[in-house]
Each structure stands twice: as C-alpha cells, then as structure tokens.
Design brief:
9 strands; Phage tail protein beta-alpha-beta fold; 240 residues; 20% strand; 4-stranded antiparallel β-sheet; 9 helices; 3-stranded mixed β-sheet; 2 domains; alpha+beta
Length: 240
C-alpha cells in the first residue's frame, strides 16, 4: 500500500518517528513509559481473551529482575516465573517450539543475560528472539512457540478512537500510519497476516499478535500525548 499523509497527522507522524528506534520498534524509554500507557477510557476491549488470559497479560506487564546463563533450562525459567506469579500457566508448544527441538530441558539462553526492572514481556522478547521463538497467550496458557505457530493464536481487540477522529484525525490515514510504523510487515495490506477494520468513526477492530497489540496501545497513547502537546502550543500562540 502506498502511504501518503495529510495534515494535521503528517506533523504528528514526524514527531512519532522520533520515538522509533533504528530497528523500527517502539523505544522503551519514550513509548513504554508509564505516562504514555492508555487511560482507562481509551483501553482496548478484549474480544478473545478470558479472565485467565487477562491475568497473563497483566503478568507480562509486571517488572522483574532476571539472570540466566547457559546452564538454565526452560524448565528453570518456567519455575522461576511461576514462583513469582502463582497460578500462571506456562508451557513449551510441542507443535511450535517443540518442532524446533526445544524442550523443558533445553538451555534457555546461549550466553548469560541479566536484566533489572524490566517488563516480563520485554525480557521474553529479548530471550526468545535469539532462538527465533516468541510467546502467545492461548487457552489460559502463556505458550512459548515458534514465530510461525504464533500466527495461529492472534487475538482481537476493539480500540476506541473517537477522540482521535474528533481532534483532526482521519480513519484511513490513521490505519496507514499504523501499517507504516507498528510492525509494518505484519499487516495484510503489506503482505502480512494481521488485519484491522473500522467500525464507523469511533472504533477500530484489530486482530494481531499480543506483543504487537502492546505496541499499538503505545502508539495511540503517544498520539494522544502529541495532540495534547500540539494543543498546548496552539493555546500559547493564541494567548500572545
């Protein structure tokens, strides 16, 4: 899809581009800051996740300290996470990671790693990415699986975006921005697997991987923050 942007979202897009790192992902310091998390009235509505899955999502957003070396196995990692988060179910997917030779007795990292005060979802992304693995939430389980198999476990969410439309946004333009800067290769419009569709001019329905949903939430929060900043500047200008 050819992407062209119109004002006022063009200037917002340029500002948001400063919040993206060299590999095209949201930067932790700029986007995952607590101040940019979605406010309650803007929180997405889950379609496919039940209470147990929502508990896992909350766990993924918690911060942890973690140290691993090549003697630690996936079983060791799972036991540590279960100890810190009682009641959570976590497993190796036999059809995904298992097909790649990953078992509970497999080493979880090739080289020692140490993370302090990091969100669990970020730690898992760093740890699993080196082995072409990822995670997904399905059937009340945090599943360690292959990137290909994870595509079968995408979740759907409804995002309230009426306020963005009322503040100068355009639905088609918003969708183009999303496809351009949030996991660009994942969207069906760009030859990928994920889909989104508007419901009127108030809601956006998205089917995506859990970790990309998080990036999308952060994008909407950053857009709102940028619009607030633009509005503040305009108010100052009008007051002169």
């Amino acid at each position: 899809m050819k992407t062209t942007f119109k004002l006022p979202f063009l200037s917002l897009f340029c500002c948001l581009a400063l919040l993206i790192n060299n590999c095209g992902r949201m930067t932790t310091c700029a986007i995952e800051n607590e101040d940019t998390r979605p406010k309650e009235q803007y929180a997405p509505i889950e379609i496919t996740l039940g209470p147990a899955e929502m508990k896992i999502r909350k766990t993924l957003d918690s911060t942890i300290d973690i140290e691993l070396d090549d003697t630690k196995t996936f079983g060791d990692l799972f036991n540590m996470l279960k100890e810190k988060n009682p009641g959570i179910n976590i497993a190796v997917d036999p059809r995904g990671a298992g097909a790649m030779g990953i078992q509970l007795s497999s080493s979880v990292v090739r080289e020692a790693v140490s993370y302090r005060g990091i969100k669990l979802r970020s730690a898992l992304r760093l740890i699993l990415g080196g082995q072409d693995l990822t995670y997904c939430i399905t059937d009340e389980v945090l599943l360690i699986t292959s990137e290909e198999e994870a595509l079968k476990h995408m979740s759907a969410r409804i995002y309230p975006i009426e306020d963005l439309m009322k503040r100068g946004g355009d639905m088609e333009e918003l969708m183009e921005i999303i496809e351009a800067i949030v996991a660009p290769d994942s969207w069906a419009a760009n030859g990928g697997y994920a889909e989104m569709a508007p419901f009127g001019d108030k809601l956006l329905i998205v089917r995506q991987l859990d970790e990309v949903h998080t990036e999308l939430e952060n994008l909407f929060a950053a857009l709102r923050q940028a619009l607030d900043a633009v509005g503040a500047v305009e108010n100052v200008e009008r007051g002169r």
